[in-house]
Amino acid sequence: MTTPTQPAEQLSTTTLLRFATAGSVDDGKSTLVGRLLHDSKSVLTDQLEAVEDASRKRGQEAPDLALLTDGLRAEREQGITIDVAYRYFATPRRRFILADTPGHVQYTRNMVTGASTAELTVILVDARHGVVEQTRRHAALTALLRVPHVVLAVNKMDLVDYAEPVFAAITREFTAYAAELGIPAATAIPISALAGDNVVEPSSHMDWYGGPTVLEHLETVPVSHDLTACHARFPVQYVIRPQTPEHPDYRGYAGQIAAGAFRIGEPVTVLPSGRTSTIAGIDLLGDSVDIAWAPQSVTIRLTDDVDVSRGDLIAPSDDAPAVTQDVEATVCHVADRPLTIGQRVLIKHTTRTVKAVVKDIPSRLTLDDLSQHPAPGQLVANDIGRVLVRTAVPLALDAYADSRRTGSFLLIDPADGTTLAAGMAGGSFAAAATGIPGPDDAGWDF
Q1: For 98, which of 147, 263, 278, 443 is 20 to 30 Å away at the CA?
Q2: Which one-letter DSSP state was computed for residue 257?
Q3: Which residues of 87-105 are buried (b: 16+ CB within 10 A; e: fewer)?
């Protein structure tokens, strides 16, 4: 039997950073992404040639680097970002998965999609306009989704003569608003995405700034969250019963550890049934190990022949989540058709999908001032609101404040499988911001 030797501080993917860009329309998000890709030598020759050709056809002398991410025809024609564009690149120090999200209000749901798995959000602000309404919206969404790290990129500094007072004023205003949302300290960087100032290379025009460039910060921001410190959760994906001469009595439960760590000999509870047992063995890549942690994919064997099936959740007996059929949550509605009270839906949580009904929609959140609009009756596309959902069978959910992995879920249309809403169980940042009691929000280390 072998025991993994990976240290605790490396339990998450320390060499990979998932981040998203956000900001108001024309703040330069796609240009920043294009500049990052271009200056970090992450653009293939044929891609750059295609961008140069498209730019010439539009009458531009220099290549429009925004075209590296704005891939849809409508995006190119209108000069805006509509859908989330994912890009993958790497430097010698770290690998990156980048989500370039739209800035328009009507594409709020796309921004939620792109930032939902991000460990860092880069929020751009046009130095000429400062913090605007959409900047506040995206900051609020970042807080709602509990993205651990935030970068304020004050863009287009070349259009304000690289003036330090302009940068300082915008930073103060944004920091004050972020504090209201409970966002951990944001890192402010003055840049010009078009000219390349402080994106990959330091700017010669802003000697008053002594901080990192955008890429330097992305390469060094700590993302090695110790998932073993989180509540241990193992959603069962598949039951393995070979029933072969070599393994006549083998019964294992396969899946990916969502959070925490599991050890041989540990008492566990299977939810929602509540049956208890003890971990007899853990199989990882064909070997038996003493301990396994998130996000490893393993097979867990129990000492007792209990009834376990896909969708069940295995958790430590002394730290098992409560099961409930009444799910209170904040949801972002992503479908074109509205979500209404009394509507029958499916709720997908980890590996379990069950029938449910929307019992109530108590409020809709106004992101401009974080106020609650009571009893809206329905949620339409891009709305964010509180819902109460009654499930057909109990679910074992954590609060989203405790775990982004086991505190999130999807609402699905049972008729055609369309995703209706993305949900976050329990309270939200808005609870604290509006004075409504909510969970303890201290610390966002997921």
Answers
A1: 443
A2: -
A3: bebebeebebbbbbbbbee
pLDDT tier, 24 (very low <50, low <70, confident <90, very high otherwise): confident
State the pLDDT at residue 315: 97
Evaluated on CA atoms 257, 259, 263, 268, the torsion sign reads negative
Contact 331, 409 (CB under 8 A): no
Closest CA to 174 of 211, 206, 135: 135
Rounded to 5 degrees, φ, ψ at 67 are -70, -15
Please choose, from the candidates 11, 2, 4, 1, the residue with its C-alpha nearest in 3D space to the C-alpha of residue 229.
11
Nearest to 399 by CA among 444, 358, 356: 444
Average pLDDT over the chain, rounded to an integer: 83
> Do the bridges between strand 120-126 and strand 16-23 make them parallel or antiparallel, or are there none, so unpaired?
parallel
State how far the Cα of 266 lies from the Cα of 444, in Å rounded to an integer: 27
Cα separation, 381 vs 10, whole angstroms: 39
